[in-house]
Amino acid sequence: MAGVEQIEVVVAHQERATLRVGDVFLKIDTDQTRTDIEVEAMALAPIPTPRVLWRKPPVLALAALPGRALGRLTEPSPASAAAWVAAGAAVRELHDAPLPPWPAPGRDEAASDLDGEGEWLVTNGVLPADVVTRNRRIAEPAFRPRPPVFAHGDLQVTHVFVDGDTVTGVIDWSEAGPGDALYDLATLTLGHPEHLNDVIAGYGTDVDLDAIRACWSARSLLAIRWLIEHGFDPAPEVALLKSQL
């Protein structure tokens, strides 16, 4: 890394920080269990992932992926429709892989958290009560039992990298495990509903669109307080919840 002129702070909060130094990403995590999962998940995933350069807890060094992120929540995606189709195909390949050996996160706990988060949003004036109540109803199908798949768990649009119409890799695997296929698809398209049909075309199977919308509402309701408390702008999630009316 000799000759590097600057260090880029990719993300930083009380639990985790990611720095870019030249062509190397340095991930610092207070919880080494998350790092253990990330390293193992990348080794098991059948799709491209960053190469692990070295690990010296609490730091994990990863090689940068070629290309650029599929998009960002607050901006129109610069990627082609074909790139979004390719992303859907990559997600399907992941979901068709054998389940990883560690346990799935509890969904009942997430469902109960939704009520508390909704109350906090109203009490603190973040959202009107009617918006929260409506989205709480929309979110209900997100918690219906579905067969688990090998899920990424945090498949944000910034975590999928493409070069032209080709997926070059997927990053940030610390939430990976047996999980809900539709939650992955919803996370990928949150903020970019115009590309949902492209993703489904690449995914190649019937998808419950109401369940996708339910996951949009559930993820947004659960995320907003955390984003605010960690210094992030929840505008995309707030806009989505309002649009569901």
TrEMBL record:
Family annotation (Pfam families): APH
Matches recorded under Gene3D superfamilies? 3.90.1200.10
What SUPFAM superfamilies does this protein's entry cite? Protein kinase-like (PK-like)
Using the record's annotation, list all stretches that form the Aminoglycoside phosphotransferase domain.
Answer: 42-204
**Which InterPro entries does the entry link to?**
AGP_Transferase, Aminoglycoside_PTrfase, Kinase-like_dom_sf
Instruction: Name the chain's protein.
Output: Aminoglycoside phosphotransferase
Ranked from the top, the taxonomy reads: Bacteria, Bacillati, Actinomycetota, Actinomycetes, Streptosporangiales
